[in-house]
């Protein structure tokens, strides 16, 4: 049932009300005006139907194709004026005609009507100009033929929706014989329709993970006419068990019987207002009597049309009804929080409590509104081409010995990227990229020559700004190294496919390309061209991803994607974009919380029972977490590298604050004033609010004890400096 609200009034509206409120469109095809045509015109007016009149077959067909009438009435009394049968056929060919009406003179009733039925006419009206007779005929047509056709159309639409749905759907009869499964069910479970239709549910293998009495609980619920919803372990054709959120809904037939003959549908009609309540249509005989069909139940697997947060809110609302007052009040507060849009954004106290934390977190996680008339123009220049001094042939065999030596331990977490930066004259990304991509077989996967990969790495590195103290190609090389390290962890390898590994390596390489050394908040406040282009949303991350593909595809010499199949390219591109966008800090807590809830918690339960499992179903979350941890892993590096990166990022923030003051822009992070900032405090805040929880979750998944030991040591180092009230990177010399 539908509640339609208008102002303060509510009107309860049934399906029949809705159907009768539809204005039927009627096309009258009469060669001449007479009392019969006038009778139907009056009947249409009385019935509030929309009526069109046509005098010729040509104008009738033109009008019909334009307005798609629900009812076509063709005058067949004067056959010399036009061929009614041909007109009816044309209407059927060009569009589904709901109803055509045949007129016959009383003295021709004995003539055969079969040719006319074959032409598409489906009702006869013996000539009668009485206005009420015409009106009654239209009403019978509306409530019989037309409404039946409406329902048939709706049924076809529902069937199409089931076929196109990405949720697995299974429909059974009341005696639990499978009547239908949709293509999504076939895809997910591995069965074909022919293997299931006509079988009883009990004949399909069940997972042993379900509680023994689960099926009896479900059936008991269904017999009572109630919907059942919960966790169910289904067994695929290949024997694998998968956990699913299942919703099973009994469907009530119009005949009024639901499963048991003694249970009337009226008792259950309005019981499930928030659930799926599909009624089977009834076939009508000529005498108007209805035949009852078997009722059925739809088994809808996975997520329903409701959003998960809506389900949570509904469950809490239901729990409130039977809760004592203190609990109900507490649940009110919970609902108030859940109804906000920023569920993953942390809320802090006043700035006086911890200005370093508030400035750092606020600067990284919020997009400030523009408060100045000054505009910051980030040059939208064409991407750099490969500098001429970099175009010499280069392969792994051609790498100079001094550079090769610095990369000998690149598979170790303690690899020193700063040494490689110095050895390569600030071009570490090309050399390290060549070695790591070769180790992972990227050229073989992409079917591209090593020379193309080399050119691509060179042009990507050329588009990093060497003038940035932090966001330069050395940072990109560092993130690429961390990504490669994580990809070698056993559980990560089990959860990802080769295409995911290639996407992760490419995303790490390009994730900060053309970074201007300023934050998103700065660009939005300054009204930069990039902020305008991307509507102040994930400005830099969107730019990095877009520019990377622009650079790659504009020139065959560096197009590493040119030899892969189109669908594979689309999958790879989507994965790369998703990972680059995941490095945006405004979504940090959302990504971490999703990883914890979808991966860490199920993993803990599996390990508690001595089970192991890959997480291929959640590999998007794994890839996002992987690149996020690689991107901000500095506090987990050996102490000297941690100190080096802390100095570089601080200098970049100092430069931004200097420019904000110079340009008269809002100062996003006031504590990053080079004259007053405490670098130890900023590092402590960064580790406390961003690093610890994230790497605890990542370590629980990927097993990274060495990183966690470095993190502990580095935190103690910064704490020691802060306790001595030092603001610098290092203590003063003894």
TrEMBL record:
Q: What is this protein called?
A: Phosphodiesterase
Please give one Gene Ontology molecular function term for this protein: 3',5'-cyclic-AMP phosphodiesterase activity
InterPro entries registered for this protein in UniProt: HD/PDEase_dom, PAS, PAS-like_dom_sf, PAS_fold, PDE8-like_REC_N, PDEase, PDEase_catalytic_dom, PDEase_catalytic_dom_sf
Skewed-composition ranges (Low complexity): 279-289
- Record-annotated residues binding AMP? 471-475, 512, 631, 683
Concerning NCBIfam families, the annotation shows:
sensory_box
Annotated PDEase domain residues: 395-725
Question: What superkingdom does the record give?
Answer: Eukaryota
Q: What is its EC number?
A: 3.1.4.-
What is the native source organism of this protein?
Sander lucioperca
Swiss-Prot/TrEMBL cofactor(s): a divalent metal cation
Starting at the broadest rank, the lineage of the source organism is:
Eukaryota, Metazoa, Chordata, Craniata, Vertebrata
Q: Where is this region: Disordered?
A: 260-299
Q: Which UniProt keywords apply?
A: cAMP, Hydrolase, Metal-binding
GO biological process, alphabetically ordered: cAMP catabolic process; regulation of DNA-templated transcription; signal transduction
Q: What class of enzyme is it?
A: hydrolase
Family matches, as PROSITE patterns: PAS (PS50112), PDEASE_I_1 (PS00126), PDEASE_I_2 (PS51845)
Record note on cofactor: Binds 2 divalent metal cations per subunit. Site 1 may preferentially bind zinc ions, while site 2 has a preference for magnesium and/or manganese ions.
């Amino acid at each position: 049932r539908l509640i339609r609200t208008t102002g303060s009034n509510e009107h309860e509206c049934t399906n029949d009300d809705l159907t009768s409120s539809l204005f039927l469109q009627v096309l009258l095809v009469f060669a001449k005006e007479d009392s019969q045509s006038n009778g139907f015109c009056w009947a249409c007016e009385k019935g509030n139907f929309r009526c069109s009149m046509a005098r010729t077959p040509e104008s009738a067909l033109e009008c019909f194709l334009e307005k798609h009438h629900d009812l076509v009435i063709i005058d067949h009394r004067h056959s010399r004026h036009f061929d009614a049968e041909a007109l009816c056929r044309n209407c059927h060919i060009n569009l589904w005609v709901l109803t055509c009406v045949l007129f016959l003179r009383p003295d021709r009733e004995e003539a055969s009507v079969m040719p006319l039925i074959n032409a598409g006419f489906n009702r006869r009206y013996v000539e009668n100009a009485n206005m009420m007779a015409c009106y009654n005929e239209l009403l019978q047509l509306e409530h019989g033929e037309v409404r039946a056709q409406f329902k048939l159309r709706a049924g076809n639409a529902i069937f199409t929706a089931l076929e196109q749905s990405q949720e697995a759907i299974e429909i059974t009869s009341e005696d639990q014989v499978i009547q239908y499964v949709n293509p999504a069910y076939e895809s997910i479970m591995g069965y074909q329709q022919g293997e299931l239709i006509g079988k009883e549910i009990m004949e399909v293998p069940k997972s042993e993970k379900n509680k023994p009495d689960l099926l009896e609980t479900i059936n008991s619920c269904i017999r009572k006419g109630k919907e059942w919803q919960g966790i169910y372990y289904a067994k695929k054709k290949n024997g694998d068990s998968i956990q699913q959120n299942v919703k099973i809904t009994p469907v009530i037939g119009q005949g009024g019987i639901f499963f048991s003959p003694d249970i009337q549908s009226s008792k259950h009609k309005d019981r499930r207002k928030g659930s799926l309540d599909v009624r089977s249509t009834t076939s009508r005989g000529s005498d108007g009597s209805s035949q009852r069909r078997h009722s059925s139940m739809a088994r809808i697997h996975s997520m329903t049309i409701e959003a998960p947060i809506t389900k949570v809110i509904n469950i809490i609302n239901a729990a409130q009804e039977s809760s004592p007052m203190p609990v109900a009040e507490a649940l009110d507060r919970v609902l108030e929080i859940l109804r906000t849009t920023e569920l993953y954004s942390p809320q802090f106290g006043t700035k006086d409590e911890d200005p370093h934390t508030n400035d750092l977190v606020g600067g990284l996680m919020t997009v400030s509104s523009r408060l100045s008339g000054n505009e910051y123009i980030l040059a939208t220049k064409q991407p750099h081409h490969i500098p001429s001094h970099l175009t010499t042939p280069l392969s792994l065999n051609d790498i100079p010995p001094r550079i090769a030596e610095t990369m000998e331990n690149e598979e170790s977490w303690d690899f020193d990227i700063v040494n490689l930066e110095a050895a390569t004259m600030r071009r570490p990304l090309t050399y390290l990229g060549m070695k790591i991509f070769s180790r992972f077989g990227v050229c073989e996967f992409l079917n591209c020559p090593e020379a193309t990969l080399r050119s691509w790495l060179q042009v990507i590195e050329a588009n990093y700004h060497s003038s940035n103290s932090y966001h330069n190609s050395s940072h990109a090389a560092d993130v690429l190294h961390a990504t490669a390290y994580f990809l070698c962890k056993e559980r990560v390898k089990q959860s990802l496919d080769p295409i995911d590994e290639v996407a992760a390596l490419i995303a790490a390489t390009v994730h900060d390309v053309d970074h201007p050394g300023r934050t998103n908040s700065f660009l939005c406040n300054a009204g930069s061209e990039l902020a305008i282009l991307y509507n102040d949303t994930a400005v830099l991350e969107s730019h990095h991803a877009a520019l990377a593909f622009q650079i790659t595809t504009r020139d065959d010499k560096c197009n590493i994607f040119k030899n892969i199949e189109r669908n594979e390219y689309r999958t790879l591109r989507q994965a790369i974009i998703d990972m680059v966008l995941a490095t945006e800090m405004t979504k940090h807590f959302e990504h971490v919380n999703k990883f914890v809830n979808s991966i860490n918690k199920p993993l803990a339960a599996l390990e508690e029972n001595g089970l192991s499992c890959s997480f291929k179903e959640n590999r998007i979350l794994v890839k996002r977490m992987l690149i996020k941890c690689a991107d901000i892993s500095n506090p987990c590096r050996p102490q000297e590298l941690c100190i080096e990166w802390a100095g570089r990022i601080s200098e970049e923030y100092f430069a931004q604050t200097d420019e904000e003051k110079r340009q008269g822009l809002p100062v996003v992070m006031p504590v990053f004033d080079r004259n007053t900032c405490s670098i130890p405090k900023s590092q402590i805040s960064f580790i406390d609010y961003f690093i610890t929880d994230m790497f605890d979750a990542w370590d629980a998944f990927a097993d990274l004890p060495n990183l966690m030991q470095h993190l502990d040591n580095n935190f103690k180092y910064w704490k020691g400096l802060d306790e001595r009230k030092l603001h610098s990177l290092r203590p003063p010399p003894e």
